[in-house]
Specification:
By secondary structure, the chain is α+β, with helices and mostly antiparallel strands. It has 2 domains: 3-79, no CATH class; 85-225, 3-Layer(aba) Sandwich (Protein Transport Mog1p, Chain A). The protein is 40% helix and 31% strand. The protein has 7 helices and 10 strands. It has helices at 3-12, 15-29, 34-49, 52-79, 100-106, 168-173, 217-225; strands spanning 85-87, 92-96, 121-130, 133-145, 152-159, 162-164, 176-180, 183-190, 193-200, 203-210. The protein has an 8-stranded antiparallel sheet with strand order 2-3-4-5-10-9-8-7. The protein has a two-stranded parallel sheet with strand order 1-6. α1 (3-12) packs antiparallel against α2. The N and C termini lie far apart (101 Å).
Length: 227
């Protein structure tokens, strides 16, 4: 006698006893109710997913995702460059310093300078800070005379992400291009001064030589600055 026949017999019983007979019959025949069927289906899907073929696919996918993240996240972080800032010199806070050489060493900065201090004379050496952000300099400026040659040089330094209005004359005038020590130098010559700017190791340098002896004297001065 199958389940339908049993169900028909129960329907023919006293209505008050129908539910009781029906529950007892389900218990004896191990007939699952609807909630139990749903739960069993969920468990079946869960078990099926973790069978070997599916498990291998899931593990392989997870490994692939991890590899992709480990490759692309560092690249994305590395390629994220600081935003360029534009500063006005008159709005900077000016501070006198002993020399760029000393400031560089005291602050562990890898910046270039003219090492003429033992036989030359520092006319002025100043640090210019952003009034709104005094943790980082906008530019450093120094005027120095070489005691052996008499060369009088003015030079300033910014990082490569900072532009200052007073250096616009370099962008406009320095249109000649040369190389020293594999460093690209943009420069300009006139009888009263030679001008040049270049970038090195994260910093931008602006150099001016007073009354150069020759057209390319500014290039020789920059070469002396380079390591």
């Amino acid at each position: 006698m199958n389940y339908d026949k049993f169900h028909k017999l129960i329907e023919e019983q006293n209505p008050e006893q129908k539910e009781e007979f029906y529950l007892k019959l389900k218990e004896k025949l191990n007939i699952p109710d609807e909630e139990q069927k749903v739960e069993e289906k969920k468990q079946s899907r869960f078990v099926t997913f973790f069978k070997k073929p599916y498990r291998v696919i899931a593990c392989a996918s997870a490994v692939l995702v991890i590899i992709c993240l480990s490759v692309f996240i560092p690249i994305a972080l590395k390629n994220k460059t600081p935003a360029e800032r534009y500063c006005i010199a008159e709005e900077c806070v000016e501070t006198k310093i002993e020399s760029i050489k000393k400031y560089s060493k005291d602050n562990s900065l890898n910046i270039l300078y003219f090492d003429w201090y033992e036989f030359g004379e520092v006319i002025s050496s100043k640090l210019f800070m952003d009034a709104k952000d005094t943790d980082k300099f906008v530019y450093i400026a120094e005027e120095i005379i070489n005691g052996e040659t008499g060369d009088f040089v003015k030079f300033s330094i910014t990082d490569i992400h900072t532009k200052v209005d007073i250096f616009e004359k370099y962008w406009e005038s320095c249109v000649k291009e040369s190389y020293r020590e594999n460093v690209r130098i943009m420069w300009h010559y006139q009888s009263t001064s030679g001008m040049a700017y270049f970038e090195y190791d994260g910093y931008r340098y602006f150099v001016e030589l007073d009354h150069p002896e020759s057209e390319e004297a500014i290039l020789d001065i920059v070469a002396e600055m380079l390591p």
